[in-house]
Specification:
single chain; glutathione-dependent formaldehyde- activating enzyme (gfa); three-stranded antiparallel sheet; 2 helices; 11 strands; about 15% helix; about 30% strand; globular
């Protein structure tokens, strides 16, 4: 499905934390790492990479949950504990948002899948690109350009 909106809103399961996005996503991904499997209680986590300056929490105060490591900061609703988004140190240009939380999310098909070495054997996604780990840094711009072209 084509992503046509430049303004999206979303919230946690209970609605106490709300956010808005004022630009199109840069890319979508399914991450199969063991951490995402554990935090999502599923086979993978679905992510929409959002430009950081186009993401804002508009209500509530998310808390950091999951592993409290120095590189990834996973934000949750303090009431219902919904995993809402992740900020990664060194990647300040974007925020990884859980697109299932958006009011309009039918476009959120994963474009790439990462950490496929941890992928459960029965999982199939429609992702166009597949990586055993994470994509090399030099591939990111090409992937974002391909995602933008596919969702123009």
């Amino acid at each position: 499905m084509t992503m046509t909106q430049n303004h999206l809103t979303g919230c946690c399961r209970c609605g106490q934390v709300q956010f808005e996005i004022s630009a199109r996503p840069l890319m979508t991904a399914a991450c199969h790492c063991a951490g995402c499997q554990s935090m999502s209680s599923s086979a993978f986590s679905l992510t929409a990479m959002i430009p950081a300056d186009a993401f804002a929490v508009t209500r509530g105060d998310p808390v950091i949950g999951g592993l409290h490591g120095p590189q990834q900061h996973h934000y949750f609703c303090p009431n219902c504990m919904t995993w809402m988004y992740t900020r990664i140190d060194g990647f300040d240009a974007f925020v990884n948002v859980r697109p299932a939380l958006l009011e309009s999310n039918k476009w959120s098909t994963p474009f790439i899948e990462t950490m496929t070495h941890n992928k459960l054997p029965w999982v199939q996604t429609p992702a166009q690109y597949h990586y055993d780990e994470f994509p090399p840094m030099e591939d990111l711009q090409r992937l974002m350009d391909a995602f933008a072209a596919a969702h123009a």
